[in-house]
Amino acid sequence: MRNLTILSAAAGCLLATSTAQAGESIWNNAATPQVQSVASTTPVELGVKWCASTPGKLNGIRFYRSAANVGPLTVRHWAPNITLGQFILAASQAVGAAATGWVQVNFPTPINIAEGQTYLAAYHTGSGRYSTTAGYFNGGGYPASTWLRGYADGVEGPASVLRTGALSSTAPATSGAGTNFWVDVDFTPTSLVRTRLTDSCMRPAVKVAADTGAVALGIKFSPKVNGRITGVRFYRGSTASWISYPIHLWTVGGTQLASGTIPVSQNPTSGWVSGAFATPVNVVAGQTYVVAYHTPNGAYSYTHGGLTSGRTGLGGNIEAPANAGVYAYGPAGSFPTGTYLGSDYFVDPIFAPN
User: Fold this and answer.
1) pTM to 2 decimals?
2) Among 54, 133, 256, 262, which residue has the least CB neighbours within 10 Å?
3) Could you tell me if 36 and 183 lie in one domain?
4) What's the pLDDT tens digit per position in 284-312?
5) What is the pLDDT, as a whole number, of residue 14?
6) Are residues 13 and 106 in the same domain?
7) Contact, 95 vs 105, CB < 8 A?
8) What letter does residue 169 receive in the DSSP assignment?
9) With contact defined as beta carbons under 8 Å apart, do 41 and 128 qualify?
């Protein structure tokens, strides 16, 4: 529950200030900026990058508004166009009321949000006088709700961005240098099942390794409840070429239980890609298994030390032991057993509990 000030997107009139059930947001209403109103009166669009760890709906955009920030104001939501390497406009709404503090503008129709994708929430003010906290993102990602995640500055490029001038079809892209402009979202998950071993909003420290060798990369894991492994997913950092990726499931002793392929059609972009086995494989609580994908030309993603202490998955029904990230150089089908510096290769079983 949080106190909402909801503005009409169409007319800009104040609709309500009340305690009401709201969706997930990054910050609660008790969070406030260090500087309520900057001196600049230059028109500017200010944004923050964000990610949801489950599919859902974006209901609207929130931002902190000072009394001096008189607008005109427009909230906008942007989705990335990976092919072009830039954000494209998804929706926008005008704002007009004089409410201050945290205000929220709902879109007429909620926007579909994909799991694990980086989006950009922004608002434009014609009067400047926006709110800030300098260096907010330089020390790490911002506070995460149950379903929402963010990034330290530099993980997905700049964590906050801006673009000066009048509204245009160009998304804000100039780095905010770690400054928090206090832009937020209102998000409702459409799936409450938490079965991921790796949060889809996590990002590798190295998205594209310089290594070009043929290698299988995987992870050891144990379900805590009986269930089924339906496939494998992994984080693909490179968009240089489109290839098919063999995927496998083994017992911890190396007995192959399933194999399949992530076809070219499933990986036209960077980010998490996935493939399914022809037949799901039953797995037993407490037993250890290995899933992996094979890349013939390296360029994999990794974080050294990411699995030094192991991992408990979202929902707590699947876990990985310490040093669970494994690899094996060689042809497709090679069983990975090697470890290096507790590395996480961002490979994940697709698990469905019984």
Assistant:
1) 0.86
2) 256
3) yes
4) 999 999 999 999 999 999 999 999 999 99
5) 27
6) yes
7) yes
8) S
9) yes
Instruction: Enter the tokens of residue 308.
Output: 């030094």
Tell me whether residue 100 is exposed, middle or buried, using C-beta atoms within 10 angstroms of its C-beta: 0 to 12, 13 to 18, 19 or more: middle
Q: In the structure, how many helices (H) and strands (E) does the chain have?
A: 0, 22
Domain around 98: 2-189
Indicate if 266 and 334 belong to the same structural domain: yes
Q: 208 in a domain, yes or no?
A: no
> Within a 10 A sphere around the Cβ of 163, how many other Cβ atoms?
19
CATH code at position 312: 2.60.120.820
- Count of domains observed in the chain: 2
* pLDDT greater than 60 at residue 214: yes
Same domain for 237 and 349, yes or no, is: yes
Q: Order of strands across the sheet with 271-283?
A: 271-283, 227-236, 347-353
64, 69, 74, 75 alpha-carbon torsion, rounded to 10°: -10
What whole-number distance in Å separates Cα of residue 288 and Cα of residue 272?
Answer: 23
Task: Produce one character per residue of 268-303: b if its CB has 16 or more CB atoms within 10 Å, e if not.
Answer: eebbbbbbbbeebeebeeeebbbbbbbbeebbbbbb
> Could you say which of 174, 189, 204 is where a domain stops?
189
Percent of the chain at pLDDT exceeding 90: 71
Q: Are residues 122 and 43 in the same domain?
A: yes
Residues 295 and 338 in one domain: yes
CA end-to-end distance (rounded Å), the chain: 32
What tokens does 69 get?
A: 């920030």
**Contact status, residue 75 vs residue 172, Cβ threshold 8 Å:** no
Bond prior to 72 in cis (omega within 30° of 0): yes
Six-digit token pair at 204?
């590798």
* Residues contacting 109, CB < 8 A, separation 6+: none
What is the spatial distance between Cα 132 and Cα 182, in angstroms, rounded to a whole number? 7
Pair 21, 133 in one domain:
yes
What is the β-pairing status of strands 101-113 and 2-7? parallel
Would you say 164 and 176 are in contact if contact means Cβ atoms under 8 Å apart?
A: no
Q: Are residues 132 and 51 in the same domain?
A: yes
